[in-house]
Amino acid sequence: MTRLLRSTTAGVLLVLALEVAVFSILSPHFLSAANVRDTLLTMSFIGLLALGQSVVILSGGIDLSVGSLLGLSNVVAAWLLSPDFGHAPWPAAPGVAAGILAGTAGGLLNGLLVAGLRIPPFIATLGMLSAARGVAYWLSGGLPIQRLAEPFGRPDLTALPLLPGLALYLPTVAVLVATLLLETTLRRTRTGRHLYALGGSEAAARLSGLPVGRTKLLAYGLSGLLAGVAGTLTLFQYGAGDSRAGVGFELDAVAACVIGGVSLAGGVGNAVGPLVGALITASLQSGLIMVRVEPQLVHIATGVVIVAAVALERWRRRGG
Amino acid sequence: MRHTVWSFAFLAALGVALGGCGRAKSGKPVFAGVPKMLNNPVFELAHRGAQKAAAELGVELLWNAPIEGDALAQVGIVKNFTAQKVDGLFLSVNNAEMLRGAIDDAVTAGIPVVCFDSDAPQSKRLTCYGVDDAAAGARAAELMVEKMGKRGEVAVLHGTQGAPNLELRIRGFTDRMRQIAPEAIVLPPVFCNDNIQKAVDVVKAQITGNPGLTGFYMSGGWPLFATAPGPFAGTAPGKLAVVAFDGLAEELEYVRQGLVHALTAQKCYEWGYESVKLLMEHRNGRRDFPGHTDSGFDVITKENVEAYAARTK
């Protein structure tokens, strides 16, 4: 814990704390239970993608397909669960499992292309970005998939009461659990050390006899798995398949990682940082709407804060 | 220590800047509009309509949306306005089912909601003001046959896969073509990703690549937002029967020059204007709202283009 606080994460936590302080002074609604719950929910989907993205970036790669894999898993699960496609609707558990499997399969295919065929990660995952989205459009016919049975679309059924008046939605619980598991894996297991070593220097990792191919496959597979989880969680939350779900989220996920101190060069970062990074952008967007900034300025301000947060952090690490 | 002081200074400056952006409370009712996206000029027309109604009725208007059509981001914005306890919400939904919960939460919190353009019919919204997309597509097919005849080859321009209103327009168009001109060939749609430059390029490519082309149906106005003759440079006016959607000022020039036979224009300005009026009527005690308030659509041809331009100026 002490090590964590001394790390890059301390800097982003400070930025988050100050951001919350500023917006709670400017808007009486910013810290209301409903807005806290909803901002955490907005953060959750990007957060899940950012966790997977951080593993891939740590290993020295990049995954541009996470938004499309979210959309693919969302549509695959919705297609199976819906009564509108000429087959009996699947029960909830296998339908959700199939959706998560679709995301994982896409991630593993990325891993095979990168590790097996030595295709640069940018190109392999760019191809998957297009192909996975294409499958989602094709399966859904471009229209929303509706009429899913409960518990889909009933977030109240799966919410976790935290305090009186404040319940956390399932995606928020999922991203918190995933962060804990991933942080532990990165810190405490051999696989975690392999990921850092691979991202630090692939050549050195190979010379040391580390399982480079297997580690890359695991990184991309995990990224696909988390995108699959995010895609199916949108069904629990909103009750409909959407072939456009997750469009552009890959860049939000990269932004969350970078704000959270994950080095795009690989080998540096942790799991908590990207989560806080996702929370910084979600809070910023929520806060700016609350203080009634023009919508175009919200996006400009988000861009400025991404760059400023990273610049501030680099400057901090150099000792101010 | 120095870095911490500077971090505080940076965020304090941000706070001061944002404090300047926040508007003083006016005491007027606050209505918030959430279109599907910001990067489509039809919603800017709706915004202008809403501003006009807000000025007439003494309403403070808020306006926010995702830049691109993104249901998850739109849910976040609706929830944000609900947390702010605005006095009314009007929105065009990216995905009816995904927005239903956010709409119902707003209504439960005492905020009346009106849909415009794109409806969430299963939600607790008061009503939806908008066009029947399939009917507009079917009417476009009739206008196409009127100009082209019952035989020929028709290309179709699509915006983005997954946009339900465009899918419905194209389905309405192709279904009606099958009924009234079964011998005509309707080509599979080509996509422009709602991008003006790309739309000009794909339309040009379709015209060049299909010398036998006799008609073009555009489910949105994208290529016609470029200065005329845009994608039809080198194409003689009247050679191709073109029917397109919407009636923005840039598109009207194509009708004047005879490059476009007809436009089916939805009432974008009224989306905003009527929505604010409906919310105000609710505030003043009206409760008998029909489920759907049909806006109808205008058909613009060379004969009535000037009258239409004067009316929507």
Detail the topology: elements first, then pairings.
The complex is a heterodimer of chains A (320) and B (313).
Chain A (H helix, E strand, L loop, with lengths): L1 H5 L1 H19 L6 H26 L7 H16 L10 H25 L4 H20 L14 H4 L1 E4 L2 E3 L1 H19 L1 H11 L1 H6 L4 H27 L10 H11 L12 H19 L4 H23 L3
Antiparallel strand pairs in A: 1-2
Helix pairs in contact in A: 2-13, 2-14, 3-8, 3-11, 3-12, 3-13, 4-5, 4-6, 4-11, 5-6, 5-11, 8-9, 9-11, 12-13, 12-14, 13-14
Chain B lengths: L1 H20 L8 E5 L6 H17 L2 E4 L7 H13 L4 E4 L4 H13 L4 E4 L11 E3 L2 H16 L4 E6 L5 H17 L4 E2 L3 E2 L4 H14 L5 E4 L22 E5 L3 H8 L5 E5 L1 H16 L8 E3 L2 E4 L4 H7 L2
Parallel strand pairs in B: 1-2, 1-3, 3-4, 4-5, 5-12, 6-7, 6-8, 6-9, 9-10, 10-11
Antiparallel strand pairs in B: 11-13
Helix pairs in contact in B: 2-9, 3-4, 5-6
Given the helix and strand composition of chain B, which structural class is it? alpha/beta
Low-pLDDT runs of 5+ residues of chain A are none
Alpha plus pi helix count of chain A: 14
Going by CATH, the architecture of the largest domain in chain B would be 3-Layer(aba) Sandwich
**Over the alpha carbons, how many angstroms does the gyration radius of chain A reach?**
20 Å
Question: What does the average pLDDT of chain B come to?
Answer: 88
Could you say how many structural domains of chain A there are in total? 1
In angstroms, what separates the terminal alpha carbons of chain A?
Answer: 24 Å
Radius of gyration over C-alpha positions of chain B, nearest whole angstrom: 22 Å
Strand order of the largest sheet of chain A: 1-2
For the record, the CATH architecture of chain A stands as Orthogonal Bundle
Q: CATH fold name of the largest domain in chain B, please? A: Rossmann fold
Q: What's the tally of helices of chain B?
A: 10
Compute the separation of the termini of chain B in Å. 59 Å
**Total domain units of chain B:** 2
